[in-house]
Amino acid sequence: KLVCSQFRLWDLHSTIDAEKSRARGVLESLGRLGWYFFLYEGLMEVVRAKLVNKLSYADNLGAQDSVRTAIEHVPLVQGELARVASGCQVSGSEVTGKCRALVELMLRLLQQSDDQSIVFVERVSVAYPVARILASHLGCLV
Fold first, then answer.
1. Distances (CA, A) of 51 to 9, 22, 39, 132
2. Which of 100, 96, 127, 122 is CA-nearest to residue 28?
3. For residues 129 and 38, is the Cβ–Cβ distance under 8 A?
4. Of 67, 69, 81, 95, which residue is least crowded by CB atoms under 10 Å?
């Protein structure tokens, strides 16, 4: 029983742990503002998606219960991350040069025409933060 309770949230911990390098990648490619958006909402959406996918492949009841428990705890972790992130003082200018160039390019494109644009990203982990940064700088919905 002690061993079971000790590893009860192993799936959640290991899935979050696997995202550490991606969080670092978001910080390095987008800056503090991107990291803020990733921490505030993006991280746990990725974790939830991975856990749901893992649940679909779980082959026994014990594994399924473990993953379901992890999924049930995602909102709690998300709430804590949001609480921590809300205490961070991050301005809209705290982006990398690469991210700033993207924002400026999108501003020019949108000023020149009324067409819509699609931005493709190489890594899933930066998709949400890029969308939030563009929305906050361009004043548009994403």
1. 12, 17, 18, 24
2. 96
3. yes
4. 69
Place of tokens 């690469």: 98
How does DSSP classify residue 87?
T
**123 Cβ contact list (under 8 Å, min separation 6):** 22, 25
Maximal C-alpha separation, the chain = 65
CA geometry: angle 79, 82, 85, nearest 5 deg: 150
**Which residue, chain included where needed, has tokens 């000023």?**
111
SS3 for 41? helix
pTM above 0.85, yes or no: no
What is the residue-level pLDDT of the chain in tens, covering all 142 positions?
Answer: 334 455 678 899 999 999 888 888 898 999 988 888 888 888 998 999 999 999 999 888 888 898 999 999 999 999 988 888 777 777 777 899 999 999 899 888 888 877 777 888 888 888 888 888 888 888 776 6
Q: Are 23 and 39 in contact (CB under 8 A)?
A: yes
